[in-house]
Amino acid sequence: MNTPALAAPITAQGFKSDYKPIWCPGCGDYSVLSSFTKAFAKLDLRPENVAVVSGIGCSSRIPAYTTCYGFHGVHGRSLAAAAGLKLARPDLTVVVASGDGDGYSIGGNHFLHACRRNVDLTYVVMDNHVYGMTKGQPSPTTEPDWDSKLSPGGTGLRTFNPLVIALAAGANFVARAFAGDPNGTADLIAEAIRTPGFSFVEILSPCVTFRPEQRDWKQMVRPASVNSTDDAARAARRIMTDDGMNIGVLYKGERRPYQPPIGKGKKRPSDLETEFAL
Fold first, then answer.
1. Under a CB-based contact definition with an 8 Å cutoff, are residues 172 and 122 in contact?
2. How far, in whole angstroms, is CA 127 from its chain's centroid?
3. pLDDT in tens, 175-186
4. Structural domains of the chain in order of their starting residue, each with its CATH number
5. 3-state DSSP assignment of residue 229
6. DSSP-derived 3-state class of residue 64
């Protein structure tokens, strides 16, 4: 009997679509896209078994640039769509691409409850501390004293700390990466996908158009000086006392992912109609 033929491994290039990215020259999201495809290839995934979900913003264009299944949702609602997809199709690898505006502002409430529910998906947020698509407004992670034409003198508002919020809300995996290290970022995304439960990866992705000073991030980022921990309180203390430039896995827990049983419903629509009949 002939041995069944095995599908050839897909390379990183095989996960890239024919659509040409239209980000600004020098945008960190180019490298993040490369990290996505490298991570998928590293895990020996197949495009038909992966779904990339996004909302609105520069980062949210990523689904169109891959050969995977993709869903481009409305502003801030990517996690709701992704959670529903994963719960209905637990066989799929579900990855969400978002940005600091899409994910932490209008999508902030979904972020909290996605961490709490601990559905087995990976949330990748490209953070550049600014709304790049809509011409440079301050975002939730913008420094309070960042001076710009749209916020003269700065906002004066305390920055949102997504990693601490993720820990407090119950995320099972928390890491930070830098877009300028696409191979290291690919490794972190791959580890996040392998880890059961809700995995959160923040990627420092410079917006050199509206925040040209972020070119200096290349000299500022560094590997975290301590190993990852499964103690959320300890991880939170570390994150609260660093300057936001430590790279690596910061927390890795062991919570069981939320997954309700999949099967035939116990009731038919006609049964529900009967209950509400007047």
1. no
2. 10
3. 999 999 999 999
4. 19-275 (3.40.50.970)
5. strand
6. helix
